[in-house]
């Protein structure tokens, strides 16, 4: 699952930044937004929007980011963001498979 | 990418929904206006925009004309056009009839004040962080921008930064060069008409001004607080112009309290309310 999320985030970064500007040879879990990708603050905000659209309110990205300032956010590795999304997504799946009202809908 | 066409321009816009269940049509939408040239919507994101959304208000952030990821036309950097951009954009977002609380940083604060005076029925509150008002700010700003323009004109620096793969610095200088040397921004700022005490006196909505203790903009802010009927000035100790970056915790609490207090406020004609001037101790 983490591999899928990493691939999706990489695709979003290319959409926002353009692949010719991505400095890292390859985006991995250890790639950092600031040091490796030289991502600008306004580009991270655009990434946050795409993540919200893709994963929905359950991911609570605003809650995840509320405890940080922009310097701390950009100092994160891509893997930290992937882990957060993975954790929340697994919780949501577990809730559905545990027999919530929407479980029978597939 | 949230790109929204308005006033013949494509704007980069970010909307943050209000905390679940909190938004209601009678609650003002909080709209953020950033500063000039080297600024964009991201300055507000962590310190204010996310907390305001979590407190129960829909939030709109956008990059001003020519800034950040919004299109950069050659003209239209005057305050009148900026106000038209703002309300055209709100209309394009389907928010044209919602009351708004405007939060402006630096020159964005000046634009927010222009907007409140132009559309008093829609602007229900103002938060102005270090707004340049009155005094010699136009002359000082034009001098600073002109010096920066000269240093960037035909400069090899942006290309060299790109060669060195210093992407952020390269982008910053390229945007500043484009805005200062290939648009009417400096001429438009130079042509700004200063506010008058009569302008301030007809500001009907509640306003909070926040300045740094060491900022040269304090006298202009005091002038606004003296004449505007529902205006409070807070001075943050030990800070200069960059209150948004340097005081996020203290500032966040002050802004959240002010926005909450103005939820039910309705614009009024200049009432005889005594202005307040105070110091906010962190």
UniProtKB/TrEMBL annotation, chain A:
Q: Which organism is it from?
A: Streptomyces virginiae
Gene3D superfamilies given in the database record: ACP-like
Lineage of the species this protein comes from: Bacteria, Bacillati, Actinomycetota, Actinomycetes, Kitasatosporales
Highest taxon listed in the record's lineage: Bacteria
Name of this chain's protein:
Acyl carrier protein
């Amino acid at each position: 699952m983490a591999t899928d999320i990493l691939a999706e985030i990489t695709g979003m970064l290319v959409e926002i930044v353009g692949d010719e500007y991505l400095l890292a040879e390859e985006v991995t879990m250890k790639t950092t937004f600031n040091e490796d990708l030289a991502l600008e603050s306004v580009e991270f905000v655009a990434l946050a929007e795409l993540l919200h659209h893709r994963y929905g309110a359950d991911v609570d990205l605003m809650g995840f980011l509320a405890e940080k300032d922009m310097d701390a956010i950009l100092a994160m590795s891509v893997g930290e963001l992937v882990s957060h999304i993975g954790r929340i997504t697994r919780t949501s799946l577990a809730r559905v498979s545990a027999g919530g009202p929407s479980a029978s809908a597939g | 990418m949230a790109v929204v066409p308005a006033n013949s321009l494509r704007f980069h816009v970010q909307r943050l929904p209000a905390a679940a269940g909190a938004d209601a049509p009678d609650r003002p939408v909080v709209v953020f206006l950033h500063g000039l040239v080297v600024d964009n919507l991201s300055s507000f994101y962590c310190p204010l925009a996310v907390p305001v959304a979590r407190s129960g208000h829909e939030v709109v952030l956008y990059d001003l004309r020519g800034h950040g990821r919004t299109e950069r036309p050659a003209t239209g950097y005057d305050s009148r056009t900026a106000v038209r951009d703002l309300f055209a954009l709100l209309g394009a977002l389907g928010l044209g009839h919602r009351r708004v609380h405007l939060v402006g940083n630096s020159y964005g604060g000046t634009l927010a004040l222009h907007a409140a005076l132009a559309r008093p029925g829609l602007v229900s509150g103002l938060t102005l962080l270090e707004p340049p008002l009155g005094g010699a700010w136009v002359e000082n700003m034009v001098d600073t921008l002109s010096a920066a323009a000269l240093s960037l004109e035909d400069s090899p620096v942006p290309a060299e930064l790109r060669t060195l793969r210093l992407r952020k610095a390269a982008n910053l200088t390229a945007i500043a060069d484009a805005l200062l040397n290939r648009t009417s921004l400096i001429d438009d700022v130079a042509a700004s008409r200063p506010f008058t005490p009569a302008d301030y006196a007809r500001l009907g909505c509640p306003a909070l001004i926040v300045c740094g203790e060491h900022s040269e903009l304090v006298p202009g802010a005091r002038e606004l607080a003296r004449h505007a009927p529902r205006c409070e000035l807070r001075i943050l100790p030990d800070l200069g112009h960059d209150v948004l970056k340097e005081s996020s915790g203290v500032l966040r609490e002050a802004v959240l309290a002010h926005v909450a207090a103005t939820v039910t406020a309705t614009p009024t004609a200049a009432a005889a309310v005594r202005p307040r001037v105070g110091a906010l101790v962190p």
